[in-house]
Known about the structure:
Chain A is an alpha/beta fold. The first copy, chain A, has helices at residues 48-60, 79-87, 105-118, 130-139, 147-157, 165-177, 194-206, 217-226, 245-257, 277-290, 303-313, 323-335, and strands spanning 15-18, 23-24, 37-45, 64-70, 94-99, 121-125, 160-162, 186-191, 211-212, 237-238, 263-267, 295-298, 319-320. In chain A, the strands form two sheets. In chain A, strands 2-1-4-3-5-6-7 form a seven-stranded mixed beta sheet, sandwiched between helices. In chain A, strands 8, 9, 10, 11, 12 and 13 form a six-stranded parallel beta sheet that branches.
Amino acid sequence: MKRNRIAAIGPNCLGVLDTTTNIDTLFLPPDRLLRPKRGGISFISQSGALSSAVLDLAAQEGYGFAKFVSYGNAMNIDESDLLDHLASDPETKVICLYIEGVHDGKKFLAAATRAAAKKPVIVLKGGITEAGSKATLSHTGSLAGAAEVYLGAFRQAGLIIAYDLEEVFDYLKIFEKTAMKPRGNRVQIITNGGGYGIITADEISQARHLRMATLSPATAAFLKKLFPPIAVISNPLDVLGDATEDRYQLAIEACLKDKGNDILLVVMLPQTPLLNLDKLAMQTIEFAQRSKKPIVAIVTGSEFATRFARRLEDRGIPCYEFPARAVRALNVLAARRTR
Amino acid sequence: MKRNRIAAIGPNCLGVLDTTTNIDTLFLPPDRLLRPKRGGISFISQSGALSSAVLDLAAQEGYGFAKFVSYGNAMNIDESDLLDHLASDPETKVICLYIEGVHDGKKFLAAATRAAAKKPVIVLKGGITEAGSKATLSHTGSLAGAAEVYLGAFRQAGLIIAYDLEEVFDYLKIFEKTAMKPRGNRVQIITNGGGYGIITADEISQARHLRMATLSPATAAFLKKLFPPIAVISNPLDVLGDATEDRYQLAIEACLKDKGNDILLVVMLPQTPLLNLDKLAMQTIEFAQRSKKPIVAIVTGSEFATRFARRLEDRGIPCYEFPARAVRALNVLAARRTR
């Protein structure tokens, strides 16, 4: 695809945003549509209004974008051309497609397979039910076709299927914020909230591509010596509601050394006054940068919690508001580890 | 239950918040844990840290609370006592429980059945898997027991089961913000985003207790005369990306009059500059206050979008960030309509 042909303007099309070259043909005012920072996400969408809503929210939540193309009903270039382009774009770490239909099935399957072999490709398909499919016909004129055929083709090509926009956000975050592929699927939970640890363990146990790790006896013995007697040295590792950043540091360090896990999922509920969030952020970021295991966090709360989470994310630690969202993203990350 | 016995302090217990009497025994600073405004939600939790995270986030997102009791391992009163109390509390519109175990099965089943007959009762059960259940034992000392037994009992009592905290937030919102029970389960979508309409239609078609409404021929003919020729007069009703607040007003008014639907789900993507959000909010609130059908909104975007959503919510229109969350909440609302 030639670069100068990228502006495929037609109905349902918002325009193009390219953070590398500063091309911005969105034609919407910045007080209504925040522009995201530069980053690793490239997004292709067949719906203009969906594009503007996604960009505005993603910018607010600190997602970084390489390219955003809202191509509507694709007058001159189609989703396969765009996929090929983004697959070889060095700025693009992860690709997401919102599509209602594809223009050439064979061409798409080939392009999607090529792209997915190089980087994660997430797809949200509009019109997977009869009612939705009827609506695509009057929107982009796409013949949405049988859901099974589409979903089957996506799986065959190795795409990551999202069933809602929230899943899109969850998956984009984990692939943009961490470059790391876990070596296995064993997750160790560290938490300062007992209930959160339990809910998270429930979610992991039900996730297809994840399982609960087991602390090695040596790690358990080491932590038992240092932690208060009522701390729960297991998985979840409960550092208790009165945990300080130092107790977290001990826990994270010990679990990173432990060979019995591949991924750390750290619940950090910042409501307790004993927790110095500045120090906790600095220490956790330092661990994440030295570590070969992905560290993902769950942080719930109001604005100060969100600021803490953004700080971690800017340095490679994806943060999620709720256990289910973190586990869903980890599940997709783990599923790709053998690819 | 005597009021003066409500302070059941023990491990894993945060304390009590009662917005009616201004009792606040949370012992956490307000800059770390925002206090929510007065409202219709009462929450019982067996986990202290979970309680503080929930309260902090809920306060930020505009949820209103009547009572919040974090009762830990329940030294003197248990969840059934609390349920009985809240069932007859006139300030409480909706009850939510986070529990890891119950102390007396028969007593709980009776109390839960009584409470659920009076108002919606949402339950999130920690420890529904083996790993989660093992963790409850060292947390509250609850014998979490077989998930099937618990979930079966919850269903028998008529409780609304949530499987994650995000679901808890979604369900609490719809029951707190709207008092209305829909007369049926037929949902009409109005949208200014084609893709959003399609995704929402897909979600509704897959929701157990909902189905897509059909616009009556009279409504369709009426709107066809007034709308631009490329507007899609169907379900979804696509008022197009250049919709003004007046076009929304026409659409909402016509759909409220239409006897072919029971619920309006209105997607309002506020990124386009033509949409006057002040007027749109005022008009939609006016409709909602006169209407006998629930109106629920989907609003995605950055801060100005959130402010718009809060304004609608304060006047009885629950707003959700993503289609799946709105539809999940509506599904639960519709399931209760015949009770």
